[in-house]
Predict the 3D structure of the following.
Amino acid sequence: MKCILVDDEILNLKNLEIILTENFPEISVLGMFQNVADAKLFIEKNPIDLLFLDISMPIEDGFDLLSCFPKRSFQTIFVTAHEEYAIKALRVGAIDYILKPILLSELKTAIESVKVVLKMDKSTQDNTITLNYEGGKSIVTITDIQYLKGFDNLTMVYMTRNRKVMVSKTLKHFEETLQQDFFRIHKSFLVNLKFASKILSREALFLELNDGTQLPISRRNYKPLNDVLKRN
C-alpha cells in the first residue's frame, strides 16, 4: 500500500513514519510533505493508495488539498489536533479521523478500513472493462456483456438491457481480454456462455441465447463449444 504524509510539522511527519514502519510492513511511505503545493504536485505525478493528512497548515489546509482531487483514486486519513473538524472531514470523503497524539489502536482500525475499501475497489476493477468509443468511454460490468460481433478492426459489444456500443478494437483483442466464460463460436462472434441456452442444428448451426438471439456457429467450433456447454 503506497502512501504519503502531509503535515507542516516535521516532527509529526517523522513520528508517523516511524509508527508506520514499525507496525505496518505492508505500507510504503513514498514521501513526506510540509505544504499542500508540494503534496499536490506529487499526487498528480504518482499514484498512491493512502493519504495521511493534517488539517491546519499555513497558506493552504488539508481541505484545500482534497478539493484539488474531486475524483480521488486514494483514501484519506486525517491526522490532526483539531477535533472540531471531524464531521467536515467525513463529509469530504475521509475514511477516518485520528486525533494527535496518535493511538496505535486507532491507527490500526483506520488502516483496516482502508484495506477493506481497497479490496472492494480491486474486486470491482477486476469485474469491469473500459470501452472506448468515438466521443467517450464507458466502464462496463463484464457479466453484462452478452456477446460481441467483429467487423474488421471494429467490434460491436452487445449488453443486457438492449445496450450496445461500437469499439475500435478487434474481436481478437476481446477474445484475449475476456477469457473466462467467453467463447469464440464463429470468426465474427464471441459469446458470454453465461447467456447461452442451446445449440440449434438446422441447415446451419446456431447458438441460441437466453433472450432468443441466435448466433451462427462455425463447423470447426461446434464440437469444442458443445463440449464446454455439456460441462457447464
User: Anything to note?
Assistant: The longest strand covers residues 145-151. The chain is about 35% helix and 35% strand. The longest helix spans residues 104-126.
